[in-house]
Specification:
Layout: H1 9-24, E1 29-30, E2 41-45, E3 48-55, H2 62-79, E4 83-88, H3 94-104, E5 114-115, H4 117-126, H5 128-132, H6 135-149, H7 151-156, H8 158-167, H9 175-187, E6 189-194, H10 200-213, E7 217-221, H11 226-231, E8 238-242, H12 251-254, H13 259-272, E9 277-284, H14 285-294, H15 296-305, E10 308-310, H16 316-328, H17 334-344, H18 346-349, H19 356-362, H20 374-383, H21 386-396, H22 399-407, E11 415-416, H23 417-431, H24 437-447, E12 452-456, E13 463-467, H25 470-481, H26 484-493, H27 497-508, H28 518-526, H29 528-538, E14 547-551, E15 556-560, H30 565-580, H31 584-599, H32 605-617, H33 625-638, H34 643-656, H35 665-679, H36 688-698, H37 701-715, H38 737-745
Helix pairs in contact: 2-3, 6-10, 8-10, 13-15, 14-15, 17-38, 22-23, 22-24, 23-26, 25-28, 27-28, 30-31, 30-32, 32-33, 33-34, 34-36, 36-37
InterPro entries: nSTAND3, P-loop_NTPase, Restrct_endonuc-II-like
Protein name: Novel STAND NTPase 3 domain-containing protein
Organism: Streptomyces andamanensis
Length: about 750
């Protein structure tokens, strides 16, 4: 008998409606999912209206099924149809059919109007075209038959088989599935692209399952495409699955030497060959763009064979159906399901953090699925997913993966993946934890969507990582604060100065996003000698907080150290010295590095002015104030190239040299000449407000009036401007509020 357990009750009703329509050659009406009044399906025959009630009971006993049937009698009596069918997936015996028939005998022609699982199975055999429209059913049934006949393949691919069987019942068949089937049928290759969490792997698994049920041997490629070449068998139908075939980082980083050619050759071979060989690939959209830029053969192959399928984000209807399928196939208690039916679903499917992984967790055995307040607990988990992280962190992550989550706390919120990998490798080495390129990518795959997120810059050239949200950072910081060994290892292994300042900043707090962590700052105080040593070691390191700089010649950006890097680091030195004292010679060495940069005209002038004030006021460094002022003054005076330079130089003269600008006629003429050239350019100069004030300070009132005129022209509103209006497009029936309310209303009974 076919495997009806993969279907939800809604999916079973749709199946039965199609079967009855084919059996009686008529249109069968399907009513909205909800309080049906005893009608799931209705159709008209010569004798009048007929109705059918569907009962898809997975784990019930016959006694429960019979009790449910009794509750329907009053409804059927009220409707009084010409004929009534009672249809269930329960495998009924003759006597059980008779007992159900006795309840509805006034509206049935006989016990054969009670259909059990075997009867539905027989109808499917008679109407095979109907079965083809319900892929979850025939795919799962055919797959089980394949495993039974090929025990050796089943054993060899056991992990893949288990993943497919687990995901299939909850899978929501979407238009993307049919598109993927058509691509695979036409070209033998289907490349599924899309953002993380969109369901690429699950869709690929469904395609695998379909072909397994059709007799194809499954081959899962895990390392490189050479595995597929080695596994090719001329005499057998085979389907190959290569998940994340372009890797987690970039296409070039993933592929070994010549793999691009081997991959292209395999795609060409399958695309131009017979149907006995199929290939399914998945990748993330931004990585695919990189691949097409770097490897013209991949772009050329797709343009000729059109094997790419791009998946988009979940819409409201898909979110609702995914949640419904997870709930229906779960052990969530009746009281909790009633809470969902009574509107509890709204705060879940509309939540900004909606994620199928969190949906799976909140409908699983590890979650409280019986106590009152289930929708609130569910929503609270979406609000604060860190509540599930403790279990996942401790029981499901390896030490290597745990260290990756924790070391990310020490890096800027947007961190280059390469910098994260370097910091993580250093920490692992310090603690004696083995890590490799492969295991790092695997760790990213495990953590993405739960603890971290990976994304690209706007030019799609660089890959970044960050914690999924700030509460993940708080969770990881708490783990660090609770383990002195880990904190000491982070300090010893730090390769970026900012790893130290970030930790301290999170511990000390003082802002909305960093309220402070008393345990962490206390532990840092105990480890202050290691902290100071690490500061001295990394003071000259490159910065992980890279700044994007636009390149006009290439219309793209490159990332460089922020200009204020050294000033910011010296500011941290002053902060630590005020709290825990720094050796004077260490402080002098750090300041000498700063002054060396200023002499080479490197740094950020605004930050330099701020740090000069701090040096002048700080007890341990006030002796360096004169040297700092001298070096900074020379830098500012010799680099008056743009409006920013003039602004900082003028402020410096006023603040530190006690200069009245209207007494400096030579400098005033120099400024007037500079601004005349700037105002004569096609593009207006920056900082015009500040430049007007500066002209007033110099006593250049004619120049001030000219700048005022330019400012007025810039701020005049555009008469042709109209705000861009937009409206939400119409949604399909399955995305309507009414349909979704009636869908979840099924759980009210």
């Amino acid at each position: 008998m076919r495997e009806f357990s993969v279907l939800s009750d809604v999916e079973f009703e749709e199946l039965v409606g199609d079967l009855l329509g084919a059996e009686h050659d008529t249109l069968v009406e399907r009513f909205a999912a909800g309080a049906d009044g005893g009608i799931d399906l209705r159709w008209r025959l010569s004798e009048g209206f007929c109705i059918a009630q569907c009962k898809h009971y997975r784990k019930s006993s016959f006694a429960q099924l019979l009790d449910s049937a009794r509750k329907e009698v009053a409804k059927v009596k009220k409707i009084n149809p010409s004929r009534y069918l009672f249809i269930t997936t329960f495998d009924l015996s003759v006597s059980q059919k008779d007992r159900i028939h006795s309840l509805f005998s006034a509206w049935m022609t006989g016990p054969d109007d009670v259909l059990g699982g075997k009867d539905v199975d027989a109808l499917l055999t008679r109407h095979s075209d109907v079965e083809q429209r319900h892929p979850k059913l025939w795919v799962s049934t055919g797959m089980q038959l394949f495993w039974a006949l090929h025990a050796d393949i089943a054993n060899r691919t056991d992990a893949l088989r288990q993943r497919i069987e687990k995901s299939m019942p909850r899978y929501v068949v979407s238009p993307g599935y049919q598109s993927a089937r058509e691509i695979l049928a036409s070209h033998n290759v289907c490349l599924i692209s899309g953002p993380p969490g969109i369901g690429k792997t699950t869709l690929a698994q469904m395609l695998m399952a379909e072909h397994i049920s059709g007799g194809y041997e499954p081959i899962e490629v895990s390392a490189d495409i050479n595995e597929a070449w080695v596994s090719l068998r001329r005499d057998a139908p085979q389907i190959f699955f290569y998940d994340d075939f372009l890797g987690q980082i970039t296409f070039a980083e993933r592929l070994p030497k010549n793999e691009d050619k081997r991959l292209s050759d395999l795609i060409e071979k399958f695309s131009t060959g017979g149907s006995a060989k199929k290939l399914i690939l998945t990748t993330r959209e931004y990585i695919l763009r990189d691949a097409k830029l770097n490897y013209e053969r991949l772009e050329d192959l797709d343009s000729r064979y059109h094997f790419l399928l791009e998946l988009k984000d979940y819409d409201k209807a898909a979110r609702a159906q995914i949640l419904y399928n997870h709930l229906w196939h779960s052990d969530v208690g009746p009281a909790c399901l009633r809470e969902i039916a009574n509107g509890g679903y709204k705060g879940i499917i509309g939540h900004r953090s909606y994620n199928p992984r969190l949906v799976e967790y909140c409908t699983g055995r590890s979650f409280d699925v019986d106590s009152p307040g289930y929708p609130e607990r569910f929503k609270d988990t979406l609000d604060h997913p860190e509540k599930i992280w403790k279990v996942a962190f401790e029981k499901h992550l390896t030490m290597e993966q745990q260290l990756l989550v924790m070391v990310l706390c020490t890096l800027p919120r947007a961190t280059f993946l390469e910098n994260l990998q370097d910091a993580h490798a250093s920490l692992c080495e310090t603690l004696g934890v083995v890590t490799t390129e492969t295991s790092f990518r695997e760790a990213l795959d495990v953590l993405e969507g739960t603890f971290i997120t990976i994304y690209r810059d706007r030019d799609n050239r660089y890959t970044f990582a960050r914690h999924l949200n700030p509460s993940v950072t708080e969770f990881a910081l708490a783990r660090i604060a609770a383990d002195r060994r880990v904190l000491a290892a982070i300090l010893r292994s730090a390769i970026f100065f900012e790893q130290l300042s970030e930790l301290y900043s999170y511990g000390r707090g003082g802002s909305f996003i960093r309220p402070g962590n008393a345990s962490l700052i206390k532990l840092l105080a105990r480890e202050k000698d290691r902290l100071l040593l690490a500061m001295d070691t990394t003071i000259g390191s490159r910065s992980p907080a890279q700044l994007g700089v636009h390149q006009a010649e290439t219309a793209s950006r490159i990332f460089v150290d922020p200009p204020e890097k050294m000033e910011t680091r010296i500011q941290f030195y002053l902060q630590i010295d005020a709290e825990w004292n720094i050796d004077p010679t260490v402080m002098q060495g750090a300041l000498n590095l700063l002054f060396s940069q200023w002499r080479r005209h490197l740094g950020d002038k605004g930050s330099a002015s701020t740090i000069l004030k701090a040096i002048s006021r700080h007890p341990s460094t006030e002796g360096f104030a004169g040297q700092a002022h001298e070096v900074l003054h020379a830098w500012f005076e010799s680099t008056l190239n743009d409006t920013h330079d003039w602004y900082h130089y003028a402020n410096h003269l006023s603040d530190y040299d006690d200069v009245q600008l209207d007494d400096m006629s030579e400098l005033a003429w120099q400024f007037e000449d500079f601004m005349s050239q700037e105002l004569g350019k096609e593009k207006s100069p920056e900082n015009l407000d500040e430049m007007k004030s500066l002209a007033d300070d110099f006593g250049l009132y004619g120049l001030s009036d000219r700048i005022e005129e330019v400012l007025r022209e810039e701020y005049e509103p555009d008469d042709d401007y109209e705000p861009d209006g937009s409206r939400l497009g119409d949604v399909g029936d399955r995305g309507s509020d009414a349909y979704i309310a009636e869908l979840f209303g099924r759980f009210s009974d």
